[in-house]
Design goal:
The structure holds 2 protein chains of 2 kinds. Chain A is globular, with a radius of gyration of 22 Å. Chain A is an alpha/beta fold. Chain A has 2 domains: 126 residues, 3-Layer(aba) Sandwich (Rossmann fold), CATH 3.40.50; 169 residues, Response regulator (Rossmann fold), CATH 3.40.50.2300. In chain A, the strands form 2 sheets. Chain A has a 6-stranded parallel sheet, sandwiched between helices. Chain A has a 6-stranded mixed sheet with strand order 7-6-8-9-10-12, with helices on both faces. Chain A starts with a helix and ends in a 5-residue tail after the last helix. In chain A, helix 4 packs parallel to helix 5 and helix 8 packs across helix 9. Chain B is mostly helical. Chain B has one domain. Classes of the chains: A alpha/beta, B mainly alpha. Chains A and B meet through strand 7, helix 8 and helix 9 of A and helix 1 and helix 12 of B.
Chain lengths: 333, 323
């Protein structure tokens, strides 16, 4: 009997030793309420971060989709308790929950995307949206025949103003006299979920002469893209590559590589290179970019492509300085 | 002529924005005239928007979508009726319950069926209501004033917009010129008198609620298959409550209700149009104020500052036969 127990224990020890590496590394992700198939932000994390990581390393990533606000905190706590780390929290809505849970579990690594949380065990990944928006604005102004371009934001918050400000700067860089119409869909979170309002705002901008509109407005954007298609104008997507949403009238999309950032977080945590603190990803780091694929290839000429990439190189080299709305709280362009 | 064009474009937008309000407000009118308060206009609209987009996307036909939208809305109307008429439950509670139920159910079913975070797929052209161009609209577009009004303002809407406005005289006729309308109004004012005359209060109220369901179905289908191309979570964004406000503002009468809807629609169109426009140097027009105007106006009205809004007398009270 003793022998048996001993052998079981040995086997157990042997097993735990052999699988230490894999067992210790238990990454997890918490999506926000839009869900992992939202065609946009969360889906980018899933498709370009979680899925390839699973495929490359053969390590399971635990996923959690909260159905309401209260579940975010519960989900984070449960994952932390069960020894999952690093835990990636997707979206600025999770900031307060992450801060709270990070204090409760000081030894667990957390990564939050799109918002800064100042805790010793939290890594915050934020993006220089203004740089990407600048590029998009430049392309919009190149394609506009009226020199009038539009911007439609979701909720009126500094993050969205940052998009708008970068976009205006880009448009004016290409065409000094370009007129930029800036509209926000509202001042509450429903402004991210009102496609009817988005369509109306787009139609109003079209009637003022705009022929390219950029929507940084979540679900509201879908109404904008639809209106652009109905009226034969151009629209620009955001976060994920949304060129496929209305192929033929989507000029491009401003892509945030949240998926790549997620992948890198997991990889860093695995190799021990993970560090707490704030990471700002811009054009240089590949954090933001513009999208060119088979859906918009016909709309963007080789010459346009060259020009946009030149501007991109100039921003990376620092020759063009893009003003960040969030640094001063104002957009003076 | 610049300002004239701007006004035409704003009125054009007004018609588009007012349409779902009008459907929903007329729906509420039939229900409340029969004595059943309907807070669940929002929920029924949302349910219909989801069903219409889902059915349209699956079958490829916008008419199937419309039918599914109406059927779903009627289903929830019947639940409301069952709770408030048959079981004499609290009408407000039942309405709120339906709103909450639908908000969750649509997203959950959407996630399960389409796996796109509660959205339906974007609808293709054949799966949506398309604008109808009036004859000669193109040719007349250059004729000043009349041509403009004809081709820009009147032509080029989809069939549901025309239907919504055609429903106004129709509902007025039904309410004021038919036997059914007389009885419906009576059952909302004094159900025991109706009962004494040997007419079923229950059946009359059910019919009011059913019409309400059908009209809400149109409102929802319009949102997801005409105004936009697909359903997303909570896309009604308070339009049901706005319609309720229009119903009160229009004093439960078809033509004033339509005018209230047009006013609210116009305010919305103006808010969109005036956003970011500066009246003086650096002073932007306060769009939030314009957006809040419908509610403020309604409160003023209820407080008795602009005329008087008198609800049907028996609204909100379940009918109990004397024992």
């Amino acid at each position: 009997m003793k022998k048996l127990i001993a052998s079981v224990v040995t086997a157990g020890v042997a097993m735990s030793v052999s699988s230490t590496y894999a067992a210790d590394f238990k990454p997890a992700v918490v999506y926000d309420q839009a869900g992992k198939f939202d065609k946009s932000f969360n889906e980018a994390v899933y498709r370009n971060g979680v899925t390839p990581f699973k495929a490359d390393k053969g390590i399971k990533v635990r996923e959690f989709e909260p159905k309401n606000d209260a579940q975010i905190e519960q989900g984070l706590r449960k994952l932390a308790k069960r020894g999952f780390q690093p835990i990636v929290a997707v979206g600025f809505t999770m900031a307060s929950s992450v801060e709270k849970i990070a204090k409760e579990f000081p030894n667990v690594k957390f990564t939050i995307i799109d918002e800064k949380v100042d805790q010793p065990n939290v890594q915050s990944i934020v993006f220089k949206e203004h740089e990407g928006a600048f590029l998009i604005g430049a392309l919009a102004a190149m394609k506009s025949q009226t020199s009038k371009v539009g911007f439609i934001g979701g909720m009126d918050i500094p993050l969205i103003r940052r998009f708008a400000c970068g976009y205006s700067q880009g448009a004016k860089y290409v065409q000094k006299k370009a007129e930029v119409f800036v509209n926000m869909a509202g001042s509450t979170p429903t402004a991210f979920n009102d496609p009817a309002k988005g369509a109306e705002l787009a139609k109003s901008q079209f009637s003022k002469g705009a022929d390219v509109v950029f929507a940084a407005a979540g679900g509201t954007g879908l109404g904008v893209y639809q209106a652009a298609k109905d009226e034969g104008k151009l629209a620009i997507g955001v976060d994920s590559n949304q060129n496929h949403v209305q192929p033929g009238t989507m000029l491009t999309s401003m892509v945030k590589s949240v998926g790549v950032a997620t992948y890198k977080t997991y990889e860093d945590a695995q190799t021990g290179a993970w560090r707490a603190g704030v990471q700002q990803l811009g054009l240089k780091e590949g954090g933001v970019d513009w999208a060119l694929d088979e859906h918009n290839r016909k709309l963007v000429t080789v010459e346009d492509e060259k020009k946009v990439n030149e501007i991109k190189a100039k921003i990376i080299s620092g020759e063009i300085k893009v003003h960040d709305f969030m640094s001063t709280g104002a957009c003076n362009v | 002529m610049e300002w004239f064009n701007t006004i035409i474009i704003m009125l054009d937008a007004t018609l588009r924005v007012a349409t779902p309000l009008l459907f929903a407000a007329l729906a509420g009118m039939f229900s409340e005239r029969a004595g059943v308060v309907d807070i669940s206009l929002e929920g029924k609209m949302l349910a219909s928007a989801f069903a219409a987009a889902a059915a349209s996307s699956v079958t490829g036909s916008v008419w199937c979508g419309l039918l599914a939208g109406i059927a779903t809305s009627v289903f929830f109307a019947l639940i409301h009726g069952f709770a408030c008429i048959t079981h004499r439950g609290d009408q407000v509670v039942s309405g709120v319950a339906i709103n909450i139920l639908v908000a969750g159910l649509t997203v959950t079913l959407g996630r399960y069926w389409f796996q796109q975070g509660g959205q339906t797929p974007q609808l293709k052209d054949a799966e949506r209501f398309k604008p109808i161009e009036f004859p000669f609209a193109q040719e007349l577009a250059d004729v000043p004033v009349i041509g403009h009004v004809y081709s820009e303002l009147l032509s080029g809407h989809n069939i549901l917009v025309y239907l919504a406005f055609a429903l106004v005289p129709l509902s007025a006729w039904v309410l004021y010129r038919t036997r059914f309308g007389l009885r419906l109004r009576a059952v909302g004012e004094n159900p025991s008198a109706v009962d004494t005359a040997g007419i079923s209060v229950t059946w009359l109220r059910y019919r009011g609620v059913l019409i309400c369901g059908v009209l809400c179905g149109f409102a929802g289908a319009y949102l997801s298959t005409a105004l936009t191309g697909g359903f997303i979570a909570n896309m009604t964004a308070g339009k049901g409550f706005m319609a309720l406000a229009a119903l009160i503002f229009g004093k439960w009468r078809p033509v004033p209700v339509m005018l209230a809807c047009l006013l609210f629609g116009f305010l919305d169109a103006a808010a969109v149009r005036l956003q970011g426009v500066e009246i003086a140097d650096g002073v932007a027009i306060p769009v939030e104020l314009i957006n809040a105007a419908p509610y403020i106006l309604t409160v003023f009205l209820l407080a008795g500052f602009i005329g008087k809004a008198i609800a049907p007398k028996a609204v909100g009270t379940p009918y109990v036969k004397e024992r």
